User: Fold this.
Amino acid sequence: MDLSDTPEEEEFRARLREWLAKVLPTLPARPSPDDWPGRRAYDLGWQRTLHDAGYADVHWGASPTTRLIFLEETERAGAPYVGANFVGLLHAGPTIAAEGTPAQRARWLPHILRGDEVWCQGFSEPDAGSDLAALRTRAWRDGDDYVVSGSKIWTSHAEVADWCELLVRTDPRAPRHRGITWLAMPMDADGVTVRPLRTLAGSAEFAEVFLDEVRVPAANRVGEENDGWRVTLVTLSFERGTAFVGEVVACRRVLGELARAARDNGRWDDPVLRRRIGRLAAEFRALWRLTQWNVSEAEASGGVPGAGGSVFKLRYSHARQELYDTAADVLGPDGLDLDRPWVLDRLSSLSYTIAAGTSQIQRDIVAERVLGLPKGR
Amino acid sequence: MRFRLTEDQQALRTWVRRLLERRWDAGALRAAAAGPARLDRELWRELGAAGLFALRLPETEGGAGLGLPEAVLVFEETGRALLPGPLLATHLAAGTVPGAATGRTVVAGVDGPLVEWLDAADAVLGDPTGAVPLRSADPLTPLHRVPGAAGGGTAEPVAVLLTAAEQLGTAARACEMAVQHARAREQFGRPIGAFQAVKHLCADMLVRAETARAAVYAAAVTAAPADVAAARLLADEAALRGTRDCLQVHGGMGFTWEAEVHLHLKRAWVRARRGGGGAVAEEALAADLLSGP
Ligand SMILES: Cc1cc2nc3c(=O)[nH]c(=O)nc-3n(C[C@H](O)[C@H](O)[C@H](O)COP(=O)(O)OP(=O)(O)OC[C@H]3O[C@@H](n4cnc5c(N)ncnc54)[C@H](O)[C@@H]3O)c2cc1C
Assistant:
């Protein structure tokens, strides 16, 4: 067991640190959370900056350890997060790289890496959330196109996306998992209507997407027709892999700030609160170690994130909620003031046990795929 | 960074597991739990001969010259196997108390107001003056109470970490026993492990154990006090809640003396009291947060 950097890792870290120190002070001010076009421009700008410095493909071109160092250092330095590029960089891109044709890779990957195009994920439907294979959005073949009708929901960043990784049903008579196809749909196509949905945090972070006879070229199909479920599992493994690594570093920083805030406002004298904060420090230390463990395991087994991702996601999503609940107690009455730091974070932390597979579904995955317990609910 | 067990470490773990399976199996455990707790001196000397106490002593002093990570792996296994006896105190005394390294001398240690295995010991670390026996909740760990001793206990990092390693072993074993039982036991015409309520208990046990494992192993590598405190908290949680959930999965069978689940649970309770308990670790971590710039 070795937690220290190898010489190559050390060199990568040092180079990245130096570069961040140089480039971060030159970044423009961050747009307000509700300014979606502004956020898109900001996030794409950051991706372009990374690209030009040679760091663009760190999410799927590099080794898991290199990626871990990248996320650790960028978060520690306070650099922007992937933001609007989340879907493109963290799952559509890797999926196309793994499953796409050479032409598809050439068409989409350079744009994702350079930060010209934003992707969103059109998986969930009103009646197909945890039970994703129940999706009903239909697509039928017409000449060189698929014609798509149906609707998607909770599509993050749909308003500002150029492309959508879309799951459609191409064979309604086949068993549920067999008749699904994975398409790359242009969001500006005729028949696509995006209706922003307000989240409980008050912002329009996700949307409903209505599809009315939208024509998608058959050349945009990734994988075979009706083989989309297998492609989807590839996508989901990337989604749960190391997507939260930077956030653990951020949570540790927040916890330090929280302790200092409590010291300044006198709440630190409350031993119950102090011990709760001490326990959270243990929690996030352990989550960071678990990340290092999972990454080392992934590297040893060829780079594919395994079910360790579900173990991590389960624990992390609840820890994050506990962190911001504790923040509210440190703030006291100010914990109800939306203009205070951490109050919006507390609201958005509520999504962590739901999005990307609910805690209940993750427990099923851990129990069945890791522990080998029988299927059945 | 290669945060995985090396081949040597894996081999060491396998070797200790085999040794304990051979010398301390389910039958021995049950027999021991049936009567009053008694230290098996022959077993103790065998463990000494196998190097369990001298593990971290330099080779020049007759030890194996290994480090904390290896000690943690060994203590995880003794935790898993529910090995009784003052293993921790004897291990810590190797090199200072003559005969401890070889297992010829059995050493107990005063930890705050409690001493484990006082009557069986040849030597005691700390001052047990006035110690009175209590009727121990753990049938395999005799306890004495030292009146007037401070409640804080010694949060000596190595002792805390090795205790955490034992707790980790217990947590992993509890999860394994629960899964085994959930696969085998049928109700309503199917294995109870097919029911989501049971499945989710098991999944949470694994999540807690694996998070604790990462924390304990990392603390063994860094030996940093905050890492050790974190490891302690996570491992206590994994063991205390894991054994309780394991008992729940076993149903009425879990509440019988014959099933070994309760023995694991009771031992986890004993260990959770060591070194001043979790409160000391929580306060240490809280203070650490304010120690930076
Ligand atoms: C902030 C946010 C962003 C999102 N972004 C996207 C996106 O970009 N693209 C996209 O496609 N989707 C997105 N989603 C949707 C998300 O994937 C789903 O919300 C999630 O998978 C749960 O589905 P559901 O909402 O339909 O809940 P349901 O499946 O209806 O579940 C409701 C409750 O029932 C429980 N439940 C359901 N089935 C079972 C079962 N078998 N066993 C036990 N309990 C069960 C669930 O755990 C949950 O507690 C997003 C969601 C959120 C909150």
Notes: The pocket of flavin-adenine dinucleotide is lined by residues A 120-124, 129-130, 154-156, 206, 351, 354-355, 357-358, 360-361, 377; B 196 (CB under 6 Å). Chain B touches chain A through 59 residues (CB under 8 Å). The mean pLDDT of chain B is 95.
